[in-house]
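ok so i was messing around last nite and threw this chain in just to see what happens. nothing serious, just curious
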Amino acid sequence: MKQKKVYIILLLAGALVLGFAGAYLGVTLAQPDYGSDQTLDESAETTGQNSGGTPPANMQKVAQTYNLIKKHYLEDVEDKQLIEGAIQGMIGSLEDPYSSYMDVESMQQFNETIESSFEGIGAEVSMVNGNVTIVSPIKDSPAEEAGLRPNDQILSVNGESVAGLNLNEAVDMIRGEKGSEVVLEVQRSGVSEPFDVTLVRDDIPVETVYSEVKSIDGKKTGVIEITSFAENTAQHFNEQLKELENENIEGLVIDVRGNPGGVLSAVEGVLKNFIPKDVPYVQIENQNGETEKSYSDLEEKKPYPISVLINEGSASASEILAVAMKEVGYDVVGTNSFGKGTVQQAVPVGDDGSRVKLTFFKWLSPEGTWIHEEGVKPTVEAEQPDYYFTSPVQVEEPLTYDEAGDNVKNMQVMLKGLGYDPGRTDGYFSGKTEAAVEAFQAEHDLPVTGEVDEETAGSIETTVVERIRNGEDDRQMEKALNVLYE
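result:
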């Protein structure tokens, strides 16, 4: 285990799991075997020094600035602060959201989280256009239960703005002990006003593979969901795939929606089950344009049909899986994926345990396509119902007949998704909307007033979240299952 922690390749969407710096799924482990046993240059592995040659002459400017600060700056400044600030400045100048500096504390927290679980809210985030942005909530986490969605932007934490902070600094504000509360101010696309989400931090288990059998028109169909690509994901996937095949499944759906990526070797271990040996399942290209192709030992494709489910929260390793499956002829169902086609490697700098996570490579599809910032386009597009993407209703004063606004619109969309008829979903609180509210209140043992107070709004939101978590009205899954036998 220790050997695996020293040299790591990072594939994820640059995301950090909210709840700790270092981030399990944003600074994710993989052994450096992108197709071979190749590792970093020895000097880089052991000392973190630049293997590219002698530092440039104008590097003296850095030393001069250091000496100037130490000699003349008004306040005392620790050497560590200046040195780490210089490193962060160099990394920041790359304008690459996936390269970062992880100090000793960040690495320690990271190493603690790769074992089995961590404490936090359970959501992966990335820096998108300078904004701390949700890539995906983790399955069964406080973030998922609270209804956080991919592309939600976090504006503040417990009332303190995250503007101008780097990703590690923002995550430091959000992380905390199990049972503690955190309030996030969130801006959601399509909603004019930000809203607050209150979450209680919890233990987030690193369990990544879930499987079940469904009957579709009498055909026994396997469904395997992969929530991330961790160290043991391939092993667990292969075990569960074998169990499903022992039950004589006639088709398979692989669900990587909301999967932000992770370990390169893990997605390789999954793809070796499906990509024949005459096709590379992934290609890794270095800065010189040299490409290394990786192949399986598989003689032929599976005898049953397979479809892959993706959405905007599917990133990096998930996209490696999706595009490889797509290019060998399997259906990919859902919406366009995130679009992250680079590979990071964490290199020790100094001897104190800190690392620089730097973009070393790009990965390409079997056919040589680079999906970076483009994503993987599904072969079969499928959208979820509108109520899957609604925002919490902010209730300062009860919403009543003849009012209008985004809160009313969100409430109407949710009611419609739950089977009530609000008459309209344009944000005007009509008489028919009032009747729908009364019907909901009556069926949920609430005072029947026709007004949406805090209690009614909370009950509507909870019912919607439960419906989504239970997979009701999951049009994407329904489509992925049906295309297997068309």
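not much to say yet. The chain has four domains: 2-110, 124-160+173-203, 209-343+362-385, 394-469.
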